[in-house]
Amino acid sequence: MDCYSCRQDGQAAAPPRERIAADEHWRAAHCFDTSLPGWLVLVPRRHVTTVADLTDAEAAGLGLWQVRLSRALTAVTGCVKTYVVQFAEKEGFAHVHFHIVPRMPDQPDDRRGPGVFGYLGVPEGERVSERRRDELAAALRAHL
Ligand SMILES: [Zn+2]
Q: Fewer CB in 10 Å around end: N or C, the chain?
């Protein structure tokens, strides 16, 4: 099984962008192929491909993490709200992952709601740099 999320979770010394915060059930990371600074993913620590397979203990932490990460994003990015979305449909990315996405005050109309996915899967040159993702990770940690 080739699973991006499980590979990242198994890294002994994960960079800050890959482990902004974690507990025994969840790990928060900065999305790697986005052009929108602050686009986070919240991932269960074990391989689960449907929300229905989360345990009660995992479910109990889920809401807390979604809200805490949203608060931290609001403080760090100045977003007016966050979007929380879960599909896990792309090949190699079936591992459940919740997108926690800052909606910025100046975000164009065509990038609001589902249009925000226009910031995902962008070419390498348009992605938020590793350095910037690590800086954001450090700033977010200070608000968690
Ligand atoms: Zn996995």
A: N
DSSP class of residue 128? P
pLDDT in tens, 9-28: 888 788 999 999 999 999 99
Residue 4 C-alpha to ligand 1 middle, in angstroms? 7
Closest to 134 (Cα-Cα) out of 1, 19, 51: 19
CB 29 within 8 A of CB 20: yes
Q: In this structure, what are the phi and psi dihedrals at residue 37, rounded to the nearest 5 degrees?
A: -60, 130
Among all chains, which residue has been given the structure tokens 């966050």?
A: 82
In whole angstroms, give the CA distance from residue 96 to residue 80.
26
Stretch (H or E) spanning 6: helix 4-9
What is the Å distance from ligand 1's center to 18 Cα? 14
User: What are 71-100's pLDDT values in tens digits?
Assistant: 999 999 999 999 999 999 988 899 999 999
